[in-house]
Amino acid sequence: MSGSNIEPGKCKPRFDFERHKKSSQSETGSIKELLEELNRTPPHKPKGSQKSNPAIYREEITKENLEGAINFIKSNFNIEISSINSKLPITTIKTIKLLYLSNRSFKGQLFERISLPGSSQATFEHWIERNTPRNEKTIRAASQLMSTLELEINDERLKHIHINKSTPSKLIEIYAKKIMEFIAPIYEIFKDDGEYRDWYITTTIRFASSEIESYRPSPLPANTEAGPIHERLYIYLLTLPFLHFVGEYQRIVESENEELSKYQIEPLFTQALSSPSEGDALLRPVTSLAAIHSFLQTNANELARLVHQATGYELRSSEITNIADETQKVLHAYVFHEWHRTDHDVVNISMADCVAALLAITIQKKIKTKYTPYWKGQSSSEKTVFRLLSHLDTSRDIEELYEEDYIPQGAMLTLYHRYCIAYALLFGRSNRMEAFMRFQIVYLKHMTIAHSHFDLEAGNEYETNINMFCEYLIQYIEDQATSRAM
Fold this sequence. Notes:
Blueprint (H helix, E strand, L loop, with lengths): L27 E2 L1 H10 L22 H15 L10 E2 H16 L4 H4 L22 H14 L5 H10 L3 H22 L7 H18 L14 H32 L15 H8 L1 E3 L4 H7 L1 H12 L5 H6 L1 H16 L9 E2 H17 L2 E2 L14 E2 L21 H18 L3 H22 L4 H30 L1
Antiparallel strand pairs: 1-2, 3-4, 5-6
Helix pairs in contact: 2-3, 3-5, 5-9, 7-9, 7-17, 7-18, 8-17, 8-18, 9-16, 9-17, 12-15, 14-15, 14-16, 15-16, 16-17, 17-18
């Protein structure tokens, strides 16, 4: 057996994913055959587990040992395995083996860490493409699983999956643009309705949200064949961060709307919208992220006066410059949300932006909200309870965020959302903003349903149906508005 890595007298494992060797679609295997293979070639002792008793790795592996992997597949991908003798596609057996061995080397924590978020366990800290100091074990485990599963997916199919199932960050960007495509015609329809403009826009967006929320696309035909299990698991792991993101994003939006309703912000800038010169002074870009410290220092007296008028909080001009670092990071979140990564010298921040960011920081100093980054499988030593502003780590520059995601997403998005609320309140548009946020959540929840098929074709069909319904609905609204005008 020259050139072979297989020891004499031993059979080569049949249920391993291998590079350059794809399984035939007609090939099958059974749980019984997998158990025979596992007991013939027991797993090696995982690295870094010197304290474990090596004897356990010689115990016979039974179906009960595989239950975690089997139940994970059955519950997430809706397949039946009636007995250990049932003939299943060989890639399904390979997937069960991969999950079993991965969970074993992960000390039994794998399935908890990669389980669906549910209604209360969603986290911004579940990623696959970020360099972050948090939740590293789960990120590493998911990455290892995906790199193994890729061995069984041909290059063209893999490319097709990644085109349709982008990284979470890219998906969020795509859906944000899509939402604006649907909302923009509503703003345009009522642009000439004077003092009733915001009321019409708010009411119409709320109507659209209710219609989209109650819409249910027709189910796929019963005979529609789902993709193979190894591919669906790959899509599952690729999609999981997006499902987590939407879950915690919804929680933050809803909790922050309730929290900030306790604090009054006067609509200082409402009248400015009807005055071209005043509106221009507030909305025209006047500074950049790079120059924000200098701008805040130069305009500290005026900004302190505006914060006082909006909230009643007395601020000295020196307090404005003392929170310049925090303000810069909130404004960076705004700039990144609007234009993604841009040169920090680009002038894209207005006076109104600065006031809203300062209000977000000032209110936090009053209400002292705490935030603990959370993820499944988190140990007590990994829990860091800090007030929101402490997470911003003013000792580090915003440019470093592109190298390491050192600010917890939940902390940053909470402060960014407060900036958005403050901005809306300053212009007397809080109802309009809440309506927009509800539309956003309703649409994103539909997208989580689409992605929860963990099947390329089924998910794409659901997403297409939702988008077609949204387009039809907006066209209906435009037609009704035209009839009203006539």
